[in-house]
Amino acid sequence: MRILLLLSAVLMPLVAWLSGTGAFGPDNGTISDRYPTLLVAAGYAFSIWGLVFLLDLAFGAWQVRAKQDSAGKLERIRPVAAAGFVLTAAWMPIFSEELFWLALLVIWASLGCLLYCAIVLARGLRANDGASPWAWIPLSLHAGWLSLAAFLNTAQVIVAYELLPTDDMLPWSAALFAAAAALLLAANWRMRGNWVFLAAVAWGLAAVYVKQSSSPLPGAHAAAWIAVGVAAVLAAQTLWLRLGRPATRGQRG
């Protein structure tokens, strides 16, 4: 499983490179521009994938020789992390082929895998049971970005298939923002305030603000400020969880 996890980490940047060359069809940015939404982020935000892939590679290499932690959490998350990496890689060509329903299923499945890993490791870190930054930082960053990207993808599917009104997207977009906020706050609560997770999400939400504040779409400016509000609430929760919230016996370990 150690080697399989390393290979799955290598697979992601390899597939991303092939996708960038057009091997699977139009790149993700081109397809995304065809279906503008009120949740889409400015293009520069997606450069975070480079850092995500680099850190995942570092994690994959580190875990090959890592000793087992006392709680066995690294062993528990290895197959789940490998699945999340493979799903992340698979999403890129699937999206390029405009198989949107399948892409949506894949990105949510990938999020489930990486979020599980991030929660397990972040809780282990706070419990001081041997969770290593080589593990929890890469997986927290990956999970944080996917937590937002999954909702961006959901909005694009809605627009692509005209499942909801596309001339007035603010009502259902606000509902997606609310659902995203609920997921982000719940996950961050489980991780007791994960600053790496917060950083990835804040990066994406800031880019949503940049994109929507200059977008001509109806409701875009309101969506831009909703994104800022979600980021502010998540940051406040993280600060409270890390500095102000007393730990209870049941929350230790």
Oligomer state of the chains in this structure: single chain
Helical residue percent band: over 70%
Coarse structural class? mainly alpha
User: What's the overall average pLDDT, rounded?
Assistant: 89
The biggest beta sheet, please?
A: none
Shape descriptor reads globular
As a whole number of angstroms, the C-alpha radius of gyration is 18 Å
Low-confidence stretches: 247-253
Calculate the terminal CA-CA distance, rounded to whole Å. 26 Å
Number of strands: 0
Number of helical regions? 9
- Helix and strand sequence: HHHHHHHHH
Q: How many domains, in number, for the residues?
A: 1
| Proportion of residues in β-strands | under 5%
Give an overview in words.
- The chain is mainly alpha-helical and about 250 residues long.
- The protein has one domain.
- Helix content is about 75%, strand content about 0%.
- It contains nine helices and no strands.
- The protein has helices at about 1-20, 30-35, 50-65, 75-95, 100-125, 135-160, 170-190, 195-215, 220-245.
- Helix 1 (about 1-20) packs antiparallel against helix 3 (about 50-65), helix 1 (about 1-20) runs parallel beside helix 4 (about 75-95) and helix 6 (about 135-160) runs antiparallel to helix 7 (about 170-190).
- The two termini are about 25 Å apart.
- The model is unreliable at about 245-253 (pLDDT under 50).
